[in-house]
Automatic annotation (TrEMBL):
Keyword DNA repair: no
Pfam families: MFS_1
Predominant cellular place of this UniProt entry's protein: membrane
Superkingdom: Bacteria
InterPro entries from the UniProt entry: MFS, MFS_dom, MFS_trans_sf, MFS_Transporters
PANTHER family per UniProt: INTEGRAL MEMBRANE TRANSPORT PROTEIN (PTHR23517:SF3), RESISTANCE PROTEIN MDTM, PUTATIVE-RELATED-RELATED (PTHR23517)
Major facilitator superfamily (MFS) profile domain span: 10-396
Protein's membrane topology: Multi-pass membrane protein
Name recorded for this polypeptide: Major facilitator transporter
Subcellular location: Cell membrane
Transmembrane stretches, start-end: 9-29, 49-71, 78-94, 106-126, 138-160, 166-187, 208-228, 248-269, 276-294, 300-322, 334-358, 370-390
UniProt keyword list: Cell membrane, Membrane, Transmembrane, Transmembrane helix, Transport
Length: 405
């Protein structure tokens, strides 16, 4: 039975507010060209790592958070994570030292990683049935809304300088106040360690299979090469003199906003397209990168990022739907954690991977990076559509055989 306060709008907003933090780490990407000049002793790839290193912190704390929660409880874990994200997030505003900025970015990710999994599990704790489904939909939208909102804010802050763009992470302060004041966790672990040990007796042995390993590698590639659109787009438009950094940030916000209706309509579209939706997602992503590579106007750039947003919006949920189908019974949590870890590793290594490939194909300029991503996603499209056609043919033969019997 749901407590009465769970029906109050202020409680729902406060609970959902922590999801605003989960997708905002790359939001400072429009400031990268300014940061290249601010750190002349470091390569572009090293500076781009400042965009992705939070995901390494998130990955580490994904493993640590269950242990921390078992000792201090969910609410204190969220509060500590928000405080850490707030302090580390705004620290680069006051520093010109690359090593310190790098460390602060890592700690920002660590703070978010502490409560990342709780953005889902706390909703499941308070809501059931139709209310749960609605809140889960709002949770997904909240992440996209947070990313889009700070992207629009960065479009103004970047005109003031690269330091000022980090002010966006001050959003953690009102979220901290909302969560602290309006999300009561009366049943939070008072003796979490003991409770955790007791629960372990009833937990099934979790494992992953080869299908999950394949999906983990796929989502690694997806994020490693998709993120090129985040950290290379500013360089592309500046090099080609197509747009200002402020306009790039606005485009990033539009890309994220595209994900909200795409995610909301995903279930309907999947019913119509079935297994074709994943290959279509890869095809659209490849086409989006092709447009960005060839773009000579702001309109083409905008069209490219919108197509990218739609393609990416098809790919991610499709992979998680397949995960739910392929995961061994009782191992869904482990499977989703594996995919989340590979996601963050892909994001973290993205600049290094592009730099490595670029060393063999003529450099890692923005345009070359867009071309590399376009080719990678086109290859994945060809493989995925081939698998779909082979699978469909096998299923049709089985149906014919069943009819003949």
């Amino acid at each position: 039975m749901e407590a009465s306060y769970t029906k109050k709008w202020i409680f729902k907003i406060s609970l959902l507010s922590i999801s605003l933090m989960t997708m905002i780490a790359p939001a400072i990407s429009p400031a990268l060209p300014l940061m290249y000049r601010a750190f002349p002793g470091y390569s572009n790839s090293a500076v781009e790592t400042l965009l992705t290193v939070p995901n390494f912190g998130i990955m580490i704390c994904l493993f640590l958070s269950p242990l921390i929660i078992s000792f201090i409880g969910e609410k204190k874990t969220v509060v500590i994570g928000l405080v850490l994200a707030l302090a580390a997030g705004i620290f680069p505003m006051f520093s010109n030292d690359y090593a310190l900025v790098f460390a602060s970015r890592f700690l920002f990710g660590a703070g978010v990683g502490l409560f990342n999994s709780l953005t889902i599990s706390l909703i499941a704790r308070f809501y059931k049935g139709d209310a749960l489904s609605s809140m889960m939909g709002f949770q997904s939208a909240a992440g996209s809304l947070g990313a889009a909102s700070v992207a629009f804010l960065v479009s103004y802050l970047v005109t003031l300088g690269w330091h000022q763009t980090f002010l966006i992470y001050a959003i953690a302060l009102p979220i901290l106040l909302l969560f602290t004041l309006f999300v009561p966790l009366e049943n939070d672990h008072k003796s979490g360690k003991t409770k955790n040990i007791k629960n372990k007796e009833h937990l099934p042995h979790q494992k992953i299979n080869f299908k999950i390993v394949q999906l983990a590698l796929l989502i690694f590639i997806l994020f490693a090469f998709f993120l090129v659109s985040q950290f290379k787009l500013p360089e592309l438009v500046v090099t080609k003199k197509i747009a200002t950094l402020s306009q790039v940030s606005l485009l990033s916000g539009i890309t994220t906003l595209v994900g909200i209706p795409v995610g909301a309509s995903y279930g309907f579209i999947k019913k119509k397209l079935g297994g074709l939706i994943l290959p279509l997602g890869f095809l659209l992503t490849s086409l989006g990168f092709i447009l960005l590579s060839l773009a000579d106007s702001l309109i083409i750039i905008a069209l490219g990022v919108i197509i990218l947003g739609i393609g990416f919006g098809f790919c991610v949920p499709s992979i998680y739907v397949l995960m739910a189908d392929y995961a061994p019974v009782g191992s869904e949590n482990l499977a989703s954690t594996v995919l989340l870890v590979f996601t963050n590793v892909g994001v973290f290594l993205s600049p290094a991977i592009l730099n490595f490939i670029g060393s063999f194909v003529g450099g890692s300029s923005a345009q070359m990076s867009m071309n590399i991503s376009a080719v990678i996603f086109m290859i994945i499209f060809v493989v995925s559509i081939s698998n779909y056609l082979i699978s469909s043919k096998k299923n049709n033969l089985k149906l014919k055989g069943a009819k003949n019997d």
